[in-house]
Request: fold
Amino acid sequence: MEGTFRINGRHELLEFSERATLLQVLRDNGHQEVKEGCAEGQCGSCLVLLDGRLVNSCQVFAAAAVNREITTVQGLGTIHAPHAIQEALVEVGAVQCGFCTPGMVMAAYYLLRHHPDPSEKEIRRALDGNLCRCTGYTKIIEGIRLAARRMRQA
Amino acid sequence: MSILNWYYPQTPEEAALLVQRDGMIPCGGGTMLLRSAMTRTRGFIDLRHLHLGYFNASSQSTTLGATLTYSETVEKMASVLPDSIIGKALHHAASTPLRNVITLGGSLAAAPPWSDLLGPLVALEAEVELIGQNPGNFSVTDYLGRSELREKSLMVNIRFANAQWESYYYRGVRTSFDLPSLTITILAEKTIHGQLKNIRIVLVGTREKYQRLQHLEQQLVEERPHLHQLPEFIPDLLSGFAGRRLGSAEFMARLAGIELQRGLEKILREV
Reply:
């Protein structure tokens, strides 16, 4: 089957299997910034925004995402124009292997859009769907607090 | 693998006709469907255009549209019914991104043993409205117990009566983001003099998926025990449990007994 998706502001007409997940369709069509981790909705590596809501793209059928707005981490910032969250995570040393980072950035973005000045408890809760096997989370939380401060001042 | 078609009905009436065909499965969030084998599934019915994501609360009752997600339910409950057991239970369910996808209808239709929705709905004596082969309103317990009701039917909404409940909710988990192996829901209603008038107690994660402790409910209302007498009233729960990843049947029963007593102490102290 085929369907149109609005990915990072661009309409894309894509072919996919009826049973495919949104994650598979994104990755098969060049959006490899969306990582495949557990593929069970537990690790958060594949987080995207679907119509503005944070979702695990591995837990959404692609057919159910047709004609909807999808934002991946590339829609937030690039290597040449990084988002404040990406800059802050790099600055505080919150990135080690980097595999979980796109998902962390998406979860942080979703949080800060709704809570510009989150407490540590709120940050921890916002990351309840993200696993990082390297950092121990402390630096990630520090990075999100830094980004929040900068985004409020901007 | 067989060919699977997707259908995008625009009205509940259209969806009701589709769901009566062989092998058709309604898809709200789809998280449970992704986990299933789908060998007999011929088509999915995408529910997003049916406008079933509504929330209506009056002084008498609350109606929750079947495609409301857990997140939407928590948000709406927080603004209208902040003490609701539904909001309390779903607030901790799954993770933030999964709460944005899991729908009430899908969750109740699948009713997995780790459901955070099941206990509160059984305790609230909620009803579901179905369309399709078995149209009408049915109690949640009937819906769960009678497979013929679920066959070729589509859930439209969930409704329950509003009352001044004191509530307690316990999740038996290994870590805060784990799926619960056991949940305990307690609702209590008091008289204007502060005496216990009505109480409902539901365990989820038992052998029979859920267990309502009606005998204990009756004893608590009729005998009104003091807090120090509560241990004598807690039933032996061993026969109700099988081993789960949280622990053996013996462990689960002991845990349920202890947490049930704690919950009752909290509720009865408040009452």
